[in-house]
């Protein structure tokens, strides 16, 4: 006889025993297999926040943030939205195997391409001039 889950639906064999209803179990799924954390460790994890090394490059007066992760990868983010600067950052990041992270609105670039992205952004900061378009009457 096949195992069924809540609502009579088929449950795969590798899923293990059926879980109790959420109301019966006060802990979340994430906490279910772990021992409770000591208060000191919990307080330390809530108050301590690691700041990543950051470099700001200014392209035509607009800030571009470059943060380095502990593993060497970098995150490139336009601090204040400007479609022209976003286009420049997007082009440079894509050319260097970068991937966009919508949650953080940044491009993550692998460590083996990080230095070439930094160089390209510094070069763009020196050479690119974005002007204000006149409004049409």
Structure overview:
A hairpin with a 2-residue loop joins β1 (54-59) and β2 (62-68). α3 runs antiparallel to α4. The relative contact order is 0.12. The protein has helices at residues 29-32, 39-47, 83-95, 111-127, and strands spanning 54-59, 62-68, 74-78, 99-101, 106-109. The protein has 4 helices and 5 strands; from the N terminus they run ααβββαββα. With 137 residues, the protein is an alpha+beta fold. The protein starts with 28 loop residues before the first helix and ends in a 10-residue tail after the last helix.
Question: Beta-sheet strand percentage?
Answer: 15-25%
With helices defined by DSSP (H or I, 4 residues minimum), what is the helix count?
Answer: 4
Order of helices and strands: HHEEEHEEH
The N- to C-terminal Cα distance equals: 77 Å
pLDDT < 50 runs, ≥5 residues = none
The dominant shape is elongated
| Widest sheet: strand ordering | 1-2-3-5-4
Provide the helix percentage: 25-40%
Number of strands: 5
Radius of gyration: 24 Å
**What would you call the structural class?**
alpha+beta
Q: If you consult CATH, what is the topology of the domain at 54-127? A: Alpha-Beta Plaits
Largest sheet: 5 strands, antiparallel
**Name of the level-1 CATH class of the domain at 54-127:** Alpha Beta
CATH architecture title of the domain at 54-127: 2-Layer Sandwich
Instruction: Tell me, rounded to a whole number, the average pLDDT.
Output: 80
């Amino acid at each position: 006889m096949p195992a069924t889950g809540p609502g009579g639906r088929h449950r795969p064999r590798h899923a293990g025993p059926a879980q109790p209803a959420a109301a019966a179990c006060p802990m979340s799924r994430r906490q279910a297999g772990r021992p409770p954390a000591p208060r000191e460790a919990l307080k330390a994890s809530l108050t301590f926040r690691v700041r990543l090394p950051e470099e700001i490059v200014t392209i035509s007066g607009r800030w571009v943030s470059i943060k380095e992760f502990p593993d060497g990868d970098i995150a490139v983010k336009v601090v204040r939205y400007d479609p022209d600067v976003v286009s420049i950052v997007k082009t440079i990041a894509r050319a260097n195997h970068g991937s966009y992270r919508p949650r953080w609105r940044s491009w993550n670039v692998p460590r083996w391409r990080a230095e070439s992205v930094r160089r390209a952004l510094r070069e763009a900061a020196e050479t690119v001039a974005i002007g204000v378009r006149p409004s049409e009457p």
